[in-house]
Amino acid sequence: MTAVKLDGLAAAKVIKSDLRLKVIELKAKGITPGLGTLLVGQDPGSLKYVAGKHRDCAEVGIESIRIDLPETASAQDIKAAIRDLNQAPEVTGYIVQLPLPAGMDSNQMLELIDPEKDADGLHPINLGKLVMNVSGEMTSPLPCTPAGIVELLRRHGVPTSGAEVVILGRGLTVGRPLSLLMSRRGIDSTVTILHSSSRYIPEAVRRADIVVAAIGQPHFVKPEWVKPGAAVLDVGISRVNDSLFGDVDPGVASVAGYLSPNPGGVGPMTRAMLLSNVVRAVS
Questions:
Q1: Is residue 241 over pLDDT 90?
Q2: What is the pLDDT of residues 96-115, one digit of tens each?
Q3: Is the pLDDT of residue 38 over 90?
Q4: What is the DSSP letter of 101?
Q5: Annotated catalytic residue: which of 7, 120, 234, 247?
Q6: 42 part of the active site
Q7: The domain spanning residue 167 has which CATH number?
Q8: 22: part of which helix (H) or strand (E)?
Q9: Known catalytic residue: 53?
Q10: Active site residue 234
């Protein structure tokens, strides 16, 4: 058996095509969506990711506003840039690219974002709305990677109702919000979060219908851990000797029913959901 590819590039292409039409409609009404990014430092992954976001904006017709600060920027410099983005009328949504340099309080900076311009869906108010809203329509922005994961599963027909889901990683951008999203009514999964202090990780993964690996440890998930036919999403990425590795061993492709490539799986969906949040904010 060879796993079905959860093709994030193809799915994101369709989403961006739909967004392009929506942006044309908005501009005809005198509304121009605008994405702002705040990048501090020269982290290679962050530089590449932010550049990709601005290319995506150009592709769908969203205006893009970029603020880059040096690694030596002070907390006051970052706060001032956030204040400028909050006040800029051309910015309808923006992100503070993580990670920030060592010593910076990321949570404090995220709290300064205007919740209505929170394109990443990580402001405490918007995360709180996700906690409170177990069912019904979500009108606040959703965290981009979790939303992209759910959309990728949906577009490939992977059943989630009643599914046992194991999430490896309890971080703010993936694990914690994804557990909330997957357990909402309408998705209806049963979720287990595993982390560095979890016991019997292989046994827990082996029971899962859907596995999401988001820990940043190269090839951590082994083929013998995976239930035959399970859906496996490779989210985490690590750099080793100038090479990039996902969290999932390539051999998992011979066991899983569905597998997202890394790159080309969840990453493009994350960027597509970011654009969707920016457009929805002014729709």
A1: no
A2: 998 899 999 999 999 999 99
A3: yes
A4: P
A5: 120
A6: no
A7: 3.40.50.720
A8: helix 8-28
A9: yes
A10: no
pLDDT at 41: 95
Share of the chain above pLDDT 90, in %: 92
**Residue 130 in this model has a pLDDT that exceeds 80:** yes
- The C-alpha atoms of residue 182 and residue 2 are separated, in whole angstroms, by 26
CA 137 to chain centroid: 20
Q: How far is CA 43 from CA 46, 78, 124, 135, 267, in A?
A: 5, 16, 25, 38, 17
Give pLDDT tens digits for 47-59: 988 999 999 999 9
* Residue 18 is assigned to a structural domain of this protein: no
Is there a cis peptide before residue 99, judged by omega within 30 degrees of 0?
Answer: yes
Same domain, 147 and 263: yes
Q: Residue 200 pLDDT more than 90? A: yes
DSSP 109-163: HHHTS-GGGBTTS-SHHHHHHHHH-SSS---SPPPHHHHHHHHHHHHTT---TT-
As for how many domains the chain has, the answer is: 2
d(CA 156, CA 48): 27
Q: From the candidates 7, 16, 22, 97, give the one annotated as an active-site residue.
A: 97
- pTM assigned to the model: 0.95
From the list 16, 22, 53, 227, the catalytic residue is: 53
3-state secondary structure of 210: strand
Measure the CA–CA gap between 186 and 164, rounded to whole angstroms.
Answer: 15
Sequence-separated (6 or more) residues with CB below 8 Å from residue 260? 5, 6, 8, 152, 232, 233, 234, 235, 266
**Which residues lie below 8 Å from residue 180, measured CB to CB, with a gap of 6+?**
130, 131, 146
Would you tell me how many other CB atoms lie within 10 Å of the CB of residue 258?
19
For residues 102 and 174, membership in a common domain is answered with: no
| CATH number of the domain within which 47 lies | 3.40.50.10860
